[in-house]
Amino acid sequence: MIRRQRAIDLLLQLAVVVAGVTISLGLDEWRSHRADVAEAEQLAQRLRADLVLDLEALDVSTDRIGRMAAAYERLLAPDAASLPDDSLDVYVDYAVSYVLFPPNDEAYEGMRQTGTSALLDADLRADVIRLYTQTYGRTAEWDDINRGFVLERMIPYLEANAPETSARIEGATWIGLSTAFRALQDDVHFRNLLRTNLLFKQVQRTVYDSTTAAVRRLAPQLAE
């Protein structure tokens, strides 16, 4: 009887120990889960804050690309030479300018380097990675195409073929480029460069519009 009572006591003590360990492990798991949830929420907030800044930058850049494209169309119009000098200065300045969109990727790079992406929902994580690697990658590709065209073809052509001018920078615009345009307005090569520049800017704007739509879809998901 005494032996049986001792066995029962041992079993009770063992049950208490097991219950204590189980509760302790459960509490640790609960605390770890809460910490992961909090970290995931902070990560989502940082990502969303970057996307809000990206939307502002995309809106500004898209507007500028639109004004550039309109300027090229005006320069290609039959009556372009009749435009006043100040208008031509702005339009030709656009012809030797380009637009870049550098995304705000601090939160994404931190997520990528630390592996905290695993804290996000799988579908949300896939959308974030797709935005930064594919969508932003396509935007950067067209930025490079436009920049390369302006730096490697438009500017060198004007430098080699336009007459010497007293062009100077005022604000954000080169003043005096109207002389160059009037000297080259009937040059077939110059007009083809303008047309190609227009085509590239139109494609770039389409890509920016697509990128903006992708960011607008993703940003609210990070606030949920």
Q: Portion of residues in helices?
A: over 70%
Radius of gyration: 31 Å
Q: Number of DSSP strands?
A: 2
Major β-sheet strand ordering: 1-2
Measured between the Cα atoms of the first and last residue, the distance is 63 Å
Q: What gross morphology would you assign?
A: rod-shaped
Q: Which structural category fits the helices and strands?
A: mainly alpha
Task: Let me know the largest β-sheet.
Answer: 2 strands, antiparallel
H/E element string? Answer: HHHHEEHH
Per-chain topology:
Elements: H1 2-76, H2 85-95, H3 106-114, H4 122-161, E1 168-170, E2 173-175, H5 177-184, H6 188-221
Antiparallel strand pairs: 1-2
Helix pairs in contact: 1-2, 1-3, 1-6, 2-5, 4-6
Structural summary, described in words:
It is built from six helices and two strands; from the N terminus they run ααααββαα. The chain has helices at residues 2-76, 85-95, 106-114, 122-161, 177-184, 188-221; strands spanning 168-170, 173-175. A two-stranded antiparallel sheet has the order 1-2. The chain is rod-shaped, with a radius of gyration of 31 Å.
In short:
The chain is built from 6 helices and 2 strands; from the N terminus they run ααααββαα. By secondary structure, the protein is mainly alpha-helical.
